[in-house]
Amino acid sequence: MNKAYDAIVIGTGVSGGWAAKELCEHGLKTLVLERGRMVNHGEYPTATKDSWDFEFRGKPSADANAKQPIQSRTGFVTQETTAHWFVNDLEHPYNETKRFDWIRGYHVGGRSLTWGRQALRMSDLDFEANKLEGIAVDWPIRYKDIEPWYTKVEQFIGVCGENLGLPHLPDSHLSPAMPLNEVEKDFRDQISKHYKNRYLTMGRFANLTGDTHHTGRANCAYRNRCMRGCPLGAYFSSNSSTLPAAERTGNMTLRPHSIVSEIVYDDTSKRATGVKIIDAQTHETLKFSAKIIFCCASTVGTTSILLQSKSERFPNGLGNDSGELGHNLMDHHFRVGATGTTTKFKQVPYTNNRPASFHIPRFRNLKDTEPQPNFLRGYSFQGSASRTDWRRAIKELSYGEALKDELLKPGPWRIGMTGFGECLPYHENKMTLDYTKKDQWGLPTVTFDAEFKENELEMRKDMQQEAIKMLELAGFEDVKGFDTALYLGHAIHEMGTARMGHDPKTSVVNKYNQIHAVPNVYVTDGACMTSSGNQNPSLTYMALTARAVDHAVKQLKQNLL
Amino acid sequence: MDRRTALKNMALSFGFAVSGSTIISLFNSCSDEKTTVTSEFFKASEMYNIAQLVDLILPKTATVGAKDLNTAHFVDKMCQHVLDDQQQKEMRLGVTEFSKRFLKITGNSTTEGTRQNYELMLSTYFNISKDQEKAVFEMLDSDYNGLSNAIKPDYHLYTFLTTVRELSLLGYYTSQTIMELDLEA
To answer: What SS3 class is residue A221?
Structure first.
């Protein structure tokens, strides 16, 4: 062993950053491992560039696209503005029995730098659903268990938005919401006029507004370039927030270029004793020991490490007594909804730099609504209205003076919204490891075999139909529905492959995110999710992580780990 | 770090708001520079086509035109570096098809073509009914391999013309000169 620590955290995204901060603030000497390169807060190479500073005005070159054939499936992350935050697919291959869009970045901060920042709480409608419907396994926690941790996380990361007092979208600790524009306000009023249980509100975003002090960070300046990294630290990322907090304690050792190949298990103590890593630059193998290990390497990353961690006691991967490790892979389904235009509000002053969208919380299959005949669970909508720019003329053949001068002015208002739908946990939706195809470090590659099924497809029909209906009722013109072919992974909300549960026979981790049979290993990233809800999940991962650290620290004090 | 980036970083680090017009007054000496560069994708003779088309698509009015911003070279650069192999192949077939039709319609070769000749070409292929326009984009969105051989010349021609048009709009409307005009509006 090279060096012993109190705790090891694998990964530096939203979950890893929170584990690092909480463990360090509790006084634990913590080694934080990141497989990718170092990114200090502020080292965001495109953050202050304008459109004309990019050689291809933001579009990816053919050469760049050839290196990111999977990442470019998103249609947006490989633009010149953000391509450096996403992996080179040729260097990081995986296998698809069924198409799975694995969109990810290997660097300190991970996807906390590029996340959508929508921070929504889950509720008991979500935590109770599996049990009530007899789907998969029951969540071992309820809303009351996570509620204080949601508040703690929101206070630290800073979330703006509006509380509605809805039981299925619990009120949050919020700073003032970003404003809806006039078209969105009108849409909100029309929805309230036509529906009893539907509301349009400003989304809850992890961007700073209001007057609360956040060390080293400033309020959002409405640059709307969040995905590039924010020099102001105005939105929450590990780089701007949790990792600096961990650093300030003096207890953190952050080690980039560290690919964890295995968690080492000792059958005598029935505990994990540390991790083996491969230095990504030198290919050197090293070992580090610790009393507790937090797996926060992302759903697929964590699950791969656990599956790779084989021993006599765990021949199918660490903690895989249930056989569920790698199964129940979920992602939200989206890119289904509607668009419309309006000729009203032409004279309203307008800017389009708000880095946030409106939100229509779930209204299907609530406790007091008629059950939907064709699908379980529900969906919410996210969208925005804006005035169109020059791109409105791309699919035209107009030219000349009139075209040029017309396109110098803002175009008509256009509104669009997409649903975010829940995906049920299916045992057969899975990831496995292929030891016949190894990566450049000699580690097995991941194979995905997962698909959306009837419940999601039926839900999508309703999502499109309701989006069209709401826009038409609100008086929008030229309303058109859309339903884009979609594959798991595309929402970048993959989760569920080391699920929480009461029973070690059917789940991987317990109600405190400890691996059932190896209690000093905690899994607190998306892998632990027992169901997906329809909410953007990062806030829940952060809250579960903070809660799990609290538990781990208490257990350590009692010498139970 | 260039001066504009340095000033912006400074503004950000001090946390003060910089209005659009302030940015313009600070940076008005950093306008797009006109430079003569060698073409990368199109042959020198074809660059004459591109320059003529770009100038007609976005001519100079009270505001600068695409020609003033060297947009033809931007179109050339994008074709070389951003289009993939298949798109490049289609563009080359398209520019050849354009030249053939140019000779047939105007009686001149493209390199001898006058502004009026080019105007006639655009008018012929762009001044069409909305239904025809819709049919053009449906053709361009369809599977190339499913197109009949009789249609393919039209497909190549419109691939060339719409790509030049779209890249001209992109180059022009995202340029510093025009973006800062927009800020002042």
So the answer is: coil
Q: Could you report the predicted ipTM of this complex, rounded to two decimals?
A: 0.88
Residue ranges with strand state E in A198-356: 201-202, 252-255, 258-266, 271-279, 285-295, 336-342
pLDDT average, residue stretch B27-35: 40
Residues of chain A in Cβ contact (below 8 Å) with chain B: 48-53, 55-63, 65, 218, 221, 231-232, 389-391, 393-401, 403-405, 407-409
Residue with structure tokens 């999710």?
A: A529
* Residue with the two structure tokens 């070992």: A287
Neighbours of B92 (CB within 10 A): 17
Assess B5–A contact: CB distance below 8 Å, yes or no. Answer: yes
> Measured between alpha carbons, how far is A53 from A175 in angstroms, rounded to an integer?
34
Structural tokens at position B29: 């000496």
DSSP H or E segment with residue A30: strand A30-33
Task: Say if CB A490 and CB A74 are below 8 A apart.
Answer: yes
- A354: helix, coil or strand? coil
Are the beta carbons of A221 and B12 separated by less than 8 Å?
A: yes
**Residue A296 DSSP SS3:** coil
Q: Is the pTM of this model over 0.90?
A: yes
For A402-440, write each residue's pLDDT tens digit: 999 999 999 999 999 999 999 999 999 999 999 999 999
Tokens in use for A460? 């999508």
Tokens of A12: 């530096």
Tokens encoding A41: 């807060």
Per-residue pLDDT of A95-143, as tens digits, reads 999 999 999 999 999 999 999 999 999 999 999 999 999 999 999 999 9
